[in-house]
Amino acid sequence: MAMAAALLLLLLAAPVIYATNHTVGGSSGWDTGVNYTAWASGQTFTVGDYLVFTYGSTHSVDQVTQTNYDNCGTSNPTKSYSGGSNTIALTTSGSMYFLCPTIGHCSQGMKLAISVVSNSGSTSPPSNSSSPSPPPPPRNSSSSSPSGATSKFCSMSHLMVGLVLGFGMMFALVV
Ligand SMILES: *[C@@H]1O[C@H](CO)[C@@H](O)[C@H](O)[C@H]1NC(C)=O
Ligand SMILES: *[C@@H]1O[C@H](CO)[C@@H](O)[C@H](O)[C@H]1NC(C)=O
Ligand SMILES: *[C@@H]1O[C@H](CO)[C@@H](O)[C@H](O)[C@H]1NC(C)=O
Ligand SMILES: *[C@@H]1O[C@H](CO)[C@@H](O)[C@H](O)[C@H]1NC(C)=O
Ligand SMILES: [Cu+2]
């Protein structure tokens, strides 16, 4: 029974380890006056992750071509999203471009370019962090959910930590 609880814990923890929700703009969300180039440079977008847009009623989200991104062109978006909250799955590697089609908003900074990298290759070496890695999450077993997680949990060491925590909890329950 304690065993089952521990296994369940590991199963619940697994998706958290491998998929990241990237809340666009962090706590600022999708709005004017935010530098999304700066925001994106602090993120690693991996296939399987999600891009989450949250915004007020004056905004929406268009996925566009690179040309339209460069020129703030709003015609013929590749895809349009609206409603205030959109979760977009990053299914393929490569570049993706977004902007807010509300007049004037793109030129006020509401444009986002991201580069999605594949996480293929079980034989690939562990990612040597050339980019500044975000601070490690607080190690707190009572923390329920990493809200708006912007950090990446896919390293082997984090997996080990998860396993150790899981087994630790199992023993705690047994004793
Ligand atoms: C990402 O968002 C989805 C939908 O809001 C949620 O079900 C999932 O638990 C989130 N994942 C993480 C790692 O925060
Ligand atoms: C946004 O941030 C990037 C990188 O930090 C910087 O190069 C760029 O000049 C900034 N853009 C604006 C409009 O401030
Ligand atoms: C990762 O490390 C390898 C070998 O140590 C090196 O060849 C490669 O350029 C590095 N990649 C990055 C992105 O730093
Ligand atoms: C864990 O988090 C709770 C509430 O967020 C806090 O009260 C507690 O001190 C934390 N424990 C550790 C070990 O950080
Ligand atoms: Cu807008």
TrEMBL record:
Region described as Disordered: 117-148
Organism superkingdom: Eukaryota
Extent of the signal sequence: 1-19
Organism: Vitis rotundifolia (Muscadine grape)
InterPro entries listed in its UniProt record: Cupredoxin, Phytocyanin-like, Phytocyanin_dom
Domain Phytocyanin: start-end pairs: 20-118
Keyword Plastid: no
Biased composition (Low complexity): 118-131
Name listed for the protein in its UniProt record: Phytocyanin domain-containing protein
Keywords: Copper, Glycoprotein, Membrane, Metal-binding, Signal, Transmembrane, Transmembrane helix
